[in-house]
């Protein structure tokens, strides 16, 4: 980062000034801007790939019928929310921990390199001055003692218990932990959704024996077979994000989604499997993504843990539990909204499904900025580089606002004309048109909310993120129940707008007051 930018970041006295700092340089491609772009763009594309794949399923199934489209919409909502509950805490914690451990590993290696260089220079000078015998020269040459290296780096790396390994592979405890936990959670999620498909869908408003019941159960059970692959692939994406490598997950995700696009019409129409064909195609694509990511990961990281203590499960579980509380609260709000829409009928649910998938897919573009902010802040915070923390947080928040305004303009115009891609039903199209203003207008709010999450995770502010979300979710649930019963379909979208606004305000309040980990903004 430029020296002048460092000085300007040190001039920040009021936490609120962070939001407006160097605002004219928001698009500047300096060292920080290039790093954000390098991480955010591939991350955003990878994050939106799965919702886009779900949109593709929705578009193909929409040509079968409105009932099937509504049924699959409910099943997708259930599967996605269950995956978020299982994996979101793991991915977020993994990204922060891997970024911290990788930064500390590099710092310790740099320190050891400097010490080794100084020692070698001193030894060379002593050899020239003293001209000892050959045997004496050998005794002065430093030995390649791995234990000595560990001792010298002990003060830096003790908290993460990073161990010296072969140069071509890194020993990162969080990577091994993430894979083990992800695999276990994937199997548990698959078993739960397959066995409990009927009662879960009943809770979502799909009554047994209704026209939506069978296609919804078929899709959910078959797609749940891919849960282990989904959770493993997302856990590995968290590891790559911690390394600030978002290109590898993008490559794997694009490969998997292309397979899904090719297989969807084959299984749905050629083999005449209907909604089951869409689910099978999606499962195959998820396992392909997981295999590609695993193949790339084992080239970079030694994933076999030497001991159980090395895995640091307690550290994962403590912070993961906080984020689990947070994601359950957030998930319940969106799931409740989908459930309330399903209770209004197949037409309302079909329209809500299309709008919700577009709403989530476009908003997740901001998650690319959140990933960039989290990775940069986590590594900078671990090294106590508060100037870089301030500059990174300011830049990604400003870019989030710009992205939200651009998305609002595109969706406000484009979705009116693009709705026919998803359905030809006149009544569904009418309701989609009603939802468009909400989907478009909330984009700036959604983008800010996602980016605030990322920067707070970057400084490991997990407890505030959990408790603030729990509080605002309680208010949002009340708004959902009241407004949906009074205004139906429109009321649900008004309540979701309030929900996202409260999320953005919670993030603004933490940083704006300079409390918790952000107290360095007041120094």
What is the N-to-C succession of helices and strands?
HHHHHHHHHHHHHHHHHHHH
Percent range for β-strand residues: under 5%
Structural class: mainly alpha
Give the C-alpha Rg. Answer: 25 Å
Sheet having the most strands = none
How far apart lie the N and C ends?
A: 21 Å
Report the strand count: 0
Low-confidence stretches: 1-12, 131-167
Number of separate structural domains: 1
The best one-word shape is globular
Approximately how much helix is present in the residues? Answer: over 70%
Instruction: Report mean pLDDT, rounded to a whole number.
Output: 82
Task: Explain what this protein looks like in three dimensions.
The chain is an all-alpha fold and 523 residues long. It is built from 20 helices and no strands. Helix 17 packs antiparallel against helix 19 and helix 19 crosses helix 20.
Descriptive terms for the model:
mainly alpha, 20 helices, disordered N terminus
List the helices and strands and how they pair.
Elements: H1 3-10, H2 31-62, H3 66-130, H4 134-140, H5 146-152, H6 154-157, H7 173-195, H8 197-203, H9 213-224, H10 227-242, H11 247-270, H12 275-300, H13 308-311, H14 313-344, H15 346-363, H16 365-382, H17 386-418, H18 426-441, H19 443-458, H20 462-512
Helix pairs in contact: 1-17, 2-3, 2-11, 2-12, 2-15, 2-16, 3-7, 3-9, 3-10, 3-14, 3-15, 3-16, 7-9, 7-10, 9-12, 10-12, 11-12, 14-15, 14-20, 15-18, 16-17, 16-19, 17-18, 17-19, 18-20, 19-20
